[in-house]
Write a structure and sequence with these properties.
615 residues, Rossmann fold, seven-stranded mixed sheet, 25 helices, 17 strands, 15% strand
Length: 615
Amino acid sequence: MAYEILSKIESPADVKALSDEQTAQLCAEIREKLIDIVSVNGGHLSSNLGVVELTVALHKAFDCPRDSIVFDVGHQSYTHKMLTGRYGAIDTIRREGGLSGFPKRSESDGDAFNAGHASTSISAALGIAKAKLLTGDPSYTVAVIGDGSLTGGLAYEGLNNAGQHKKNFIVILNDNRMSISKNVGAMARYLTSIRMQPWYLRLKKRTERVLSKIPLLGRPIGYVLKHSKAKVKHVLYRHTIFDKLGLSYYGPVDGHNMDELMNALNTVKLSKDPALLHVVTKKGKGYKYAEDDSAYYHGVGSFNIETGEPISSKENFSAVFGRKLCELAGADERVCAVTAAMRTGTGLLDFSKIYKDRFFDVGIAEEHAVTFSAGLAVSGMLPVFAVYSTFLQRSYDQLIHDASMQNAHLVLAIDRAGVVGEDGETHQGLFDVSMLNAIPDTTVYSPCYFDGLENALTAALFDCKGLAAVRYPRGGEGERPDDYAIENLNYDMIGDKNADTLLITYGRLFSEAVAARELLQQQGKELCILKLCRIKPIDPEAVSFAKGFKKIHFFEEGMRSGSVADSFRDLLEETDFDGAYHVTAVDDIYVQHASVKSSLKALGLDAQSMAEVLS
């Protein structure tokens, strides 16, 4: 496609200058480009396809970057990037050194606030709006939040304060009836009830127009009519929850009708109060496969545009976890699965169908998920909370206070542990180990292979007490030595036990360590590898084994501060170890987006880097 209009957009000012016909063509070109780049680079497709007209309308109605547009999560910001001077670089999105797949202030002044996790936009935008008020800046601040993000508590904390703000603050509720997995809970039902009443806005406007013209005849009558007016309005069209919170509610409007969108946006700009505009969109719009299965195409790898089929479909840890949990649930009726709007991503689709009564999707509410799971646990159930490592961070307080302190036995299935690749710094799973390492009486497994995951999950459920976790990376297994048997629960050893040097690692990096050993053998150097599977608590026998080596190098795919490497060193020192001890880990940085392979190399955690350090 030639992208005749899109290729000429250098700033939002160019969008404002387009005719209605050109605007329609621009939207079509944007959709074509979105499908093209995501099919090659992977990324978030459904969410971006759903907000094309809305994003174009925002840039026609507002003056970005003077007017601040804050995207919630940010996985729907690809169109925004193309319209704010980054079209020329859009083919680099999610590639190393290229554009981020999420809003990033260091990338463009069009990005008002960094994002990557849900439910943050209203709070962030309100802070920006307050700063403008304090400095006398009359520009607008707009928060764009999806209906799925309204299942997160932070969104309500923001809304609760937003109603106290003065004008020029607008919340756009992008209601696509689905966040990632199907929306659940009272808010989803509430928004559906509003959408089902098209008479709402028409009657509201007519009623206000009539009531505003009622004359006030003296104080007594004026008082009665003033209060009667509010009651009549309430009876006729009922205030929404947003009105109750102090935001003037407008909508719902068709998020794919440019005329409706522009009329609505220009109307809310005139509101004297903070406003919420309810926009209804279709996730995946314009690409049949994404429309039919928006959950799958929410975050997708490279795929064939014509067939919708993925380029690669290898077995992965998430699928193995889901199958094993179904097996365990079939054998024990106490086993439950909990997810925070990630049913498909965490491998729980089959579980949700087979064991409906024991499957709980709590929405984008990780804090609630942990405390809810703790409630299940203290009542005799065996809950497994399946969650991406990056999202587990949001529930740290609950892990300590609601789970660990009362010794509630719940299991964390930590998906996407370690480096995740192209999703970048907001999604790296590099902090969970340090977090859990600080929590007393916690058991953490970090297997390398599928059989290790299955064994660790079983042990975490039935052999452990209190808080237990099994963490595993995105994707599939790495290299496995021919002479390597079934992965043990606590630790394994491979290589020359009489060598001077011991390499210690855990999780996915064991495969890199095996490859490094082969490289060193080609140089005539022998190496022993100690692979931990249970990384908290560390098996004392593993420490006793390690103390006999002259040189130890610990490679860890996680943050150095609070690391397993530091814990192992402390235990070694208690044995009077007098050899050399070195650590390679992620040291006080945020890891940017790149392929997993490239990231591991840059961090010194790939096989070649290991071999170079140990040679």
